[in-house]
Design a protein that fits this description.
Elements (H helix, E strand, L loop, with lengths): L11 E5 L3 H8 L4 E5 L2 H6 L5 H11 L5 E4 L5 H12 L5 E6 L9 H9 L4 E6 L2 H8 L8 E5 L1 H6 L4 H11 L6 E5 L6 H8 L4 E4 L1 H6 L7 H19 L7 H4 L1
Helix pairs in contact: 1-3, 6-8
């Protein structure tokens, strides 16, 4: 079995999170080429002031793409938020949900923002029908990211790889658009995404930590695992009476 290597990856790895300490640690790793967050992650991290948090992140990350999400549900307010967020930095991508909570496609908003030169990241995408609709809204000269939630698709029992391959084809006519593999569930997803030419994948802190395992000798990994089980059993002071001990 050939050993994989992080150095051979062409895909861009973005860190996903809202913890300033974790973001700072990720920023110190050259392999991390961008950052994403969302209101759910921010709430979990205890963020209370959206703009203050965003400006703190941008002070840490002035030179790589960073995505911040709107949180309105009506499109006029969403547009106002998007334009405000875009003004925070030249490296900012505004995350726009593919629909609002009523299931209404964000297409007209995407068209207006793209025509105005606003860089955005369309999020919560699950189908290639959506990808096709999004592609039609993108100005050819304006960078955009299309985030397909491959991990959530996999959670439904569907193989996301063929879908992501088709999504790449659907975006081919928009050279400034990048496909992002969102919500990966395991480190292998990075290599799956890379193999199909996907442009970007987001990774959480737990997966970033696993990058050190890439290419690890499997015999060594087997022995490490045996040693871990033995060590934990010893530390727990487990006992199983056998032979004469059981008779007693």
């Amino acid at each position: 079995m050939a050993s994989p290597s992080v150095d051979q990856l062409n895909i861009k790895i973005f860190a996903d999170g809202a913890d300033l300490k974790g973001i700072k640690e990720a920023a110190a790793q050259p392999i991390i080429e961008g950052f994403t967050t969302n209101p759910t992650l921010m709430r979990q991290a205890g963020v209370s002031d959206y703009k203050k948090f965003a400006l703190e992140v941008l002070a840490l990350i002035p030179d790589r793409p960073v995505s911040f999400e709107v949180f309105a549900d009506d499109f006029p307010t969403m547009e106002g938020q998007a334009r405000e967020i875009a003004s925070w930095g030249s490296n900012v991508y505004v995350k726009i949900p593919v629909t609002n909570t009523q299931g209404e496609f964000s297409g007209p908003l995407l068209t207006r923002l793209s025509a105005a030169g606003v860089k955005f990241n369309v999020t919560a995408v699950m189908t290639n029908a959506q990808v096709k609709q999004i592609a039609a809204c993108l100005a050819e000269h304006v960078p955009a990211i299309v985030s397909v939630f491959a991990g959530r698709i996999a959670d439904t029992g569907r193989d996301p790889v063929p879908l992501m391959q088709e999504a790449m084809t659907l975006l081919a006519s928009r050279p400034q658009a990048e496909l992002l593999w969102a919500s990966p569930r395991e480190l292998l997803n990075i290599f799956q995404a890379d193999a199909i030419g996907c442009h970007i994948i987001t990774v959480t802190g737990d997966l970033i930590k696993k990058l050190s395992l890439v290419g690890k000798d499997l015999d060594r990994y087997s022995l490490d695992t045996v040693e871990m089980f033995y060590r934990d059993a010893q530390n727990a002071a487990f006992t199983i009476p056998v032979g004469s001990e059981r008779a007693a």
